[in-house]
Amino acid sequence: MRITVNGKAHDVRATPETPLLYVLRDELELDGPKFGCGLAQCGACTVIVKGRAVRSCVLPVASVDSPVTTVEGLGTPAHPHPVQRAFIAEQAAQCGYCTSGMVVAAAALLEQHHAPTDAQIHQALEGNLCRCGSHLRITRAVRRAAGESA
Amino acid sequence: MILARRDFLARTGGIVVAFAIPAAAFAQTSPTKPAGPSVPETNPLGGSAPSNVDAWLALDRNGIVTVRFGKVELGTGIATAISQIVADELDVPVTSVKVSEADTSDTPDQGYTAGSASLSAGAIPVRQAAAEARLAVLDLAATHFGVSTDQLTTADGAVTVRGDNRRATYAQLVDGQTLHRSIAAATKVKDPDNYRVVGKSIPRVDLPGKVYGSFPYLQNMRMPGMLHGRVIRPSPVGATLVSVDEKSIAGLPGVRIVKRDAFLGVVAPSEWTAIQAMRRLKVTWTGGGLEPVTDIAQAVRSVPMISERAVVNTGDVSTLGKDALSATYVWPYQTHGSIGPSCGIADVRNGKATIWSSTQGIFFLRSAIATLLALPNSAVRVRYAEGSGCYGHNGSDDAAADAALLSQAVGAPVRVQWMREQEHGWDPKGPAMVLSHSAALDAAGQRIATWRSDVWSPSHSTRPQGDVGNLLAGKLINVPAAKIAFVGGDRDAKVNYQIPNYRVTMHNLRDGFLHSSAMRGLGGTQNTFANESFMDELAAAAKADPLAFRRAHLANDARALDLLAALAKLGAWQARPAAANIDPSPGTARGRGLSFVRYENTEAYVACIADVLVDRKTGNVRVEKLAIAHDCGLIVNPNGLRNQIEGNAIQATSRTLKESVAFNTSGVTSLDWHSYPIVRFSEVPDVQIVLIDRPHEPILGAGEATTTVIAPAIGNAIHDATGIRLREVPFTANRVAAALRSV
Prior knowledge:
The structure holds 2 protein chains of 2 kinds. By secondary structure, chain A is α+β, with helices and mostly antiparallel strands.
């Protein structure tokens, strides 16, 4: 099987039913997507496929027929994505375990809505859980990123 | 440790300052020790730690300052705050200060990172060590320039001679030198008025890595030859293993089954294979199970009591009179709910073990694991690596032990991460508690004359303490649980209000239906819910404004009064008795409630006003806003502090409105985020904060205090809106709707 992740094609050895998350983490050694629940309930594993935020923990790798973007593919310290820059500016994390899923989901939202309302931000992130309670900062960061990329 | 310090200097040269931190300063208990008569009291954070723990600070030839501090970063920004303190005292850029990760091979044993004590206890000696290092630099500079030290000034990692242009960086001065210093009792530290970095919102050093996906979480560590393990837990709880059908996983390549009594696991070359093996393996268990529970309040009190203790007993509480008020409050079991399930990595080979863990106490874990593996302590090294958010004693220690047993069995490094249902099912729970209060007002009906409290709780700490019987893996291989000290049930059981006749009785229970341990705030969360709800009930009985009523009982505490004044301003509090403005029309009722605590009676002051909307039809409670006033002495990093307060407020809102562990005779049944919901973005309240900075007061912890005031503020606001009094958490829509129907 061949999948494209962050602009690079990879031949993967995993069996077809293997969830994409384990291919990303264990074969491609991409640490951004996290295992949180394996049930598509928390969003820690979120990646972008076809412009949409999807839960890689329940997506069989064989069904991935479009390029995948993880948080590593969004930006780097030298060339940050506006959402990443905004998360740092707003100090929008504590433990950070949910952060890459939040950043990816927010980036997907901003592709669809360049100036989302708070209600749209909440709706887009409703399936992403944060236990440390960074929600207010995350919402502010998404607003800031929208303002900066507008 | 001393060797490690020498090693460090041998590598780099420079100045090293040894310092000591009193182990007692790290105690998680309140100063009033809750020892039961039949259980010996031990220091719950310090265990057998010596009275002083050894730490050091080194300034190397590159001008980099390393602090070996022993505390771990739990995602709260401690490393950043410590860096700020050192930068100010030593006059170096904050970016040149590194706080090391904990490792049993070269870190001082400072007990557990818990109880909000990292800054409050650690800051003073760290600051003195930095001051001593600065004096050492000045001595070097005085020799170098041939002047006296009082002609020298320091700034930004360099020494300048007053009145001329001669200047040398610290790096130039220490190059090639090796100096050992220890703190003199008289080592003078800076006046807080001269701080330039402390008090500033320095950005967190760990956030960029977390935002770019490169942060080295424990969960992300890989090592050569590492295999993946998964555990399979007894079902029901407490069952013994009868048999395993190895043929059930015949199709999965390279899987090894590890069995030892009731400990069962699988190890595979790939993580997904291990997960499939865990799921497919046919296992037969027998026995076990829990007693049936229908009423949690009754169940908590049915657990055998081990000891009883008066937390406070002043005046005469024997008579309350016929107008006395009585109420019983209930708090359920709750789970830590870290987004990343617990993880452990172990490499146990050739009579040696290295363990990587997000434990809060590397030295205690080392002792427990050494026993588990039948190795001497000296053969076991535990290295800390940051994991998902830690809000108390979660599954980290247990996951490390799982990895250790699996690695020992297969002779290769093994990484174990629990599945979501294992995290929800098997992490030590925040204990359920029952709290009964009775009180009477004075003859004028204005002040509290007499207050009697009875608090039922198991210990809030069953940490390993170096004892293998306190690890889940240890229990599964039939090591009896070690005796534990009673910790935390009495936290904030006593209020700081002035009450002439006051008794609080602590009923210390055995570890109850669900295995439980420390969760944010310990018993302070439950006690403050009950105390501050009851305070509101008493204010209502006195027909008093809830704020004025509290103020009248705090007249001797100027800081408390300042705090309440700041809160009233922030929250635009209008004085009136609670529930005086109930809108009886169907639809939505609006209310506001207040709460106050001085955490642990001597720590941070926090007060909160909650504004809520109650949907009379559905019972749904929407917390619109939490206004919080916070005084924790000297503020090191205002933004980091606000982040902690917001996090406490939001997490505690979740615990108050939604969270209760469900279980039946087989064990926990709320095993995912649908059956154990937590707040989502649309449910999060606005949080407004006023910080009271007291630069000349000691730093007090901020990791837990705010958690304790949220539930009572919300409950009091619901009462203000509707007249109903909720005495059991969580305030789910069903519970609120039922209460509304009953009036």
